Predict the 3D structure of the following.
Amino acid sequence: MKKVFSIFVLLLFVFRPLAQIKIINKDVELAKEPLSEVTYVKAIETRIGGGFEACEFKLRNEPIVSTNIHPFVATLYIAYADHRPINISPDMIWLLICQGFSTHVNNNIEELRKKFVKFDGKKKLIIQTQSISQEFKKGSTKSPWPLAFPVMSDSISKYVKFDIHNLYVQSFSTTTSVEKAAYEVALLDVELNSLREEL
């Protein structure tokens, strides 16, 4: 029975890659009141306990629901508890996997180092932001960080084993530059133990 179910799930994903699965329960009354929202910037500052520099310009004033736990876990919980609709993209799931994998590698860095980097010890990674854009100013919230992520990713890929970089930075039909940047940051989280960055 387990094999039949596995084959069914596999066929479902193979033959319906663009289809969405919608689960509807007509016996449940959906929440009518909206959740309280804050700006994206305020939510992040609250979460990390201070200011930050890098943020997608389009997201700065985007209203979102602030949370003290992992945002994806909070989203699932609130959707379930309050009977709210939810949309989940492949990017969300992939980023969760990348973040979990980065945590695992960082907790076992000495045993796994050889599988990730092409060198021993530590390397210094210098990114010249002025060559990317003259608008980069240290400490400025107006610096064009989305332009820096591909350059950082390219620099990191020279030190990271090829298959690891390609594994992390995926491209789904829903992937935008923001999601790619998030994957690259998750990869950076692993590599920070081996590379020291200077921007």
Summary: The chain is about 50% helix and 5% strand. The first strand starts at residue 38 and ends at 39. The radius of gyration is 20 Å.
